[in-house]
Design goal:
alpha/beta, Metallo-beta-lactamase, Chain A, five-stranded mixed beta sheet, 10 helices, 21% strand, binds zinc ion, Metallo-B-lactamas, MBL fold metallo-hydrolase, RibonucZ/Hydroxyglut_hydro
Length: 300
């Protein structure tokens, strides 16, 4: 019997997938698991986005749950080693699957999940994009679980006497469901995918003008740390590369449209020298130009 149990355990551990994650201390209250500057694939198993834990004194709040159940479980195990506090809230910055597919883990341990009211419109699908791109083992246990507390406008949480402001962006910016989180006492903003540092922003689901507007709003807020949904720059300058990229892209595409350039010409001619060093430039820049062209053409 003992032998059987042992072999079952051994077999289980042979097949069980484990992420290798370690948190980075951003400031005295905040730890982040920074994702790789890559597109999701079977090698990184979706570990491409950021998930952060904020110590509020007597509990943690978690910003984004990552790409899978096992990823979320691993972040929590890491944080328990640092300090084993209960988790009061998980906040989803938006409805893209690399940011919320870890929700099932937090639901299982009884955490209240908060996100944009637009989550009401996220579809339950046969197979998520993440599921089709990462290994079965890494995706094990993952389900589409949506926030139970929905935010429209501003929501204020108060934890241990510290205020946490959840600001829903009221127009489609990076997505239709962006929320940024501001903790004035810690001078920290979690911007979700409104901010990509060290990576090309993905505008597939976005609106350039509204995105610029949302970033301009964030820029007016006094903060020491602005932590994006991707990338490891965590001071105020993290916002600059996304802001410059989106603005330059909008201006260049608008100019091409005015000039009567065809879509293909715009895609081939519009380059961004300052961003060429980024790992995702070769994969994402041309699709971004094409999307920007179609969207701006439509708006004209
Ligand atoms: Zn996103």
């Amino acid at each position: 019997m003992k032998l059987l149990l042992l072999s079952v355990l051994l077999l289980n551990s042979l097949f069980a997938f484990e992420y290798t994650l370690s948190p980075t201390k951003v400031n005295s209250n905040t730890y982040c698991f920074f994702g790789l500057p890559e597109v999701m694939n079977e090698k990184n198993n979706g570990n491409i986005s950021n998930s952060c834990y904020v110590n509020m004194g007597d509990s943690y709040i978690v910003i984004d749950s990552g790409p899978s159940y096992l990823y979320a479980k691993s972040t929590h195990a890491n944080m328990k080693e640092i300090k084993d506090l209960p988790i009061s809230y998980l906040i989803n910055t938006h409805g893209h699957d690399d940011h919320y597919l870890g929700n099932a883990y937090y639901k299982e341990i009884g955490v209240e999940i908060v996100g944009s009211k637009e989550f009401k419109n996220v579809e339950i699908v046969q197979e998520t994009r993440m599921q089709s791109r990462i290994s079965k083992e890494a995706y094990a246990g993952t389900k589409q679980v949506f926030p139970s507390t929905l935010v429209d406008g501003t929501k204020v949480l108060e934890l241990n006497g510290i205020k946490v402001y959840l600001e829903a962006v009221d127009k489609r910016a990076h997505s239709n469901s962006d929320i940024f989180i501001h903790i004035p006492k810690y001078e920290t903003i979690f911007a979700g995918d409104l901010v990509f540092s060290e990576r090309i922003p993905v505008i597939r689901d976005g609106n350039l003008n509204n995105w610029i507007e949302a970033l301009e709003k964030i820029k007016t807020i006094k903060a020491k740390h602005i932590i994006g949904g991707h990338g490891e720059i965590v001071d105020k300058s993290s916002i600059d590369s996304t802001y410059n990229y989106i603005k330059t892209l909008r201006d260049k595409v608008a100019f091409a449209l005015e000039d009567g350039d065809e879509l293909d010409d715009a895609v081939n001619n519009i380059k961004m020298e300052d961003f060429k060093e980024y790992k995702t430039y070769s994969e994402q820049h041309k699709p971004n130009v094409a999307i920007a062209y179609r969207k701006l053409e439509w708006e004209q």
